[in-house]
Amino acid sequence: MWNAAGGLSLVLGAIGILLPLLPTTPFILLASACFLRGSPGFHQWLLRNKHLGPVLIEWQLHRSISATVRIKGLILILASFAFSIYMVPHMWLKLALLCFLVALVSFFLRIPVKESVADRGENL
């Protein structure tokens, strides 16, 4: 049951990369949690993934994201919502999307950013 939930979450997360209103990150985090309980092998596969692994490990250890992930996330959020707002024909839908955008960005900016010690100016 955990593996089925993890697989479904992973598929929904992958679809969320392409669909603006379907969130990717919560589904990937859910898949990781499900695989941790159902299949340690799948969980390790996720952690070893070159794109997802570092983000998942950072979240598991520190409940934070890197500055690079924050910048990329903001760019993708803004781009997908801008495209959606441009494509919808009705003004009320555009306003609803704009409200969702504001809510999502305000939530996303509340996630702590863990700064690497090696990236600090005093180490250069």
Could you report the average pLDDT, rounded to the nearest whole number?
87
Helix content: over 70%
- Termini distance? 50 Å
Strand content: under 5%
Organism: Vibrio gelatinilyticus
Keywords: Cell inner membrane, Cell membrane, Membrane, Transmembrane, Transmembrane helix
Subcellular location: Cell inner membrane
GO cellular component, one term: plasma membrane
Describe the protein's architecture and organization.
It is found in: Cell inner membrane. With 124 residues, the protein is mainly alpha-helical. The protein folds into two domains: 63 residues, no CATH class; 51 residues. 72% of the residues lie in helices and 0% in strands. The chain contains six helices and no strands. The longest helix has 21 residues.
Task: For this entry, give a set of tags.
single chain; 124 residues; mainly alpha; 6 helices
Topology:
Blueprint: H1 2-18, H2 25-38, H3 40-48, H4 53-62, H5 67-87, H6 91-108
Helix pairs in contact: 1-2, 2-3, 3-4, 5-6
In short:
The chain is mostly helical. Helix content is 72%, strand content 0%. The longest helix is centred in the middle third of the chain and has 21 residues, at 67-87.
